[in-house]
UniProtKB/TrEMBL annotation:
Protein name as it appears in the record: Helix-turn-helix transcriptional regulator
GO molecular function, one term: DNA binding
Region span, Disordered: 195-225
Source superkingdom: Bacteria
InterPro entries, per the entry: Cro/C1-type_HTH, Lambda_DNA-bd_dom_sf
Organism in which the protein naturally occurs: Streptomyces buecherae
All residue ranges annotated as the HTH cro/C1-type domain in the record: 29-90
Length: 225
């Protein structure tokens, strides 16, 4: 369902924003259901198995536009039953060109609306929530740590299997470089997690190291941070 831009003079002819949102979700539920080869009853059964009943007739009424409301909990369970994410039912990127993000707004690209909704762009004015920015940064730092660890391990393997002294020295030098980057990444994570706690939040669970032994005291344990 592509929703086109509108001018102030024909604003009254635009369907209500709530109806537009519901229609977008309903159409995507139907598209996804058929893509998976599921009947409305199959979908209802899947919702029941998840633990939140959405009867077949309710699903049929939603898809046909006869349902008057669409609770958020239903969207969450429908998404799980359809093996997708709730945000993809609300903003079907690639299937709907434009959506109206909020009432009395011009339509915009669905991808832009999704990024606004999820706060996927920390630098944007609408994504200035401090804790959200800190969590984005935390994930970025964990990726940097894992990349540095991987490179350090690669160089350690090169040093161990080097064919001559020159190659071994080069590998050991590179290994030391990446070891320093690992240490710096860990320190940035420590400081970032301390900031999250100072702001009254709980830091996310640290990713386990892919290389450390379960008996290694340096295995990214929570108490180390």
């Amino acid at each position: 369902m592509t929703q086109h831009r509108f001018d102030d003079e024909d604003e009254d002819n635009v369907p209500e924003w709530v109806d537009q949102v519901m229609a977008t979700v309903a159409k995507e539920v139907r598209r996804r259901r058929k893509e998976l080869g599921m009947s409305a009853q199959n979908l209802a059964d899947a919702c029941e198995e998840i633990g939140h009943s959405i009867p077949r007739n309710v699903i049929a009424n939603m898809e046909s536009g006869r349902r008057a409301n669409l609770p958020l909990v239903d969207v969450m369970v429908l998404a799980e039953a359809l093996h997708t994410n709730p945000i993809c039912l609300i903003y079907p990127v690639g299937y709907v060109e434009q959506v109206q993000k909020l009432p009395l707004r011009h339509s915009e690209q669905t991808w832009d609306a999704m990024r606004w909704f999820t706060g996927a762009e920390p630098g944007e004015p609408l994504a200035l929530d401090l804790m959200l920015r800190l969590f984005h940064q935390h994930e970025s730092e964990q990726r940097a740590l894992h990349a540095a660890e991987s490179s350090e391990q690669d160089e350690a393997w090169k040093a161990k299997s080097a064919g001559d002294a020159t190659q071994r020295e080069e590998a050991l030098s590179a290994q030391a470089f990446y070891a320093e980057r690992v240490a710096l990444a860990k320190e940035r994570l420590r400081r970032l997690r301390a900031t999250i706690r100072e702001e009254g939040g709980t830091p996310p669970t640290l990713w386990p190291s892919r290389f450390a032994s379960p008996f290694d005291n340096n295995n990214h344990l929570e108490e180390d941070f």
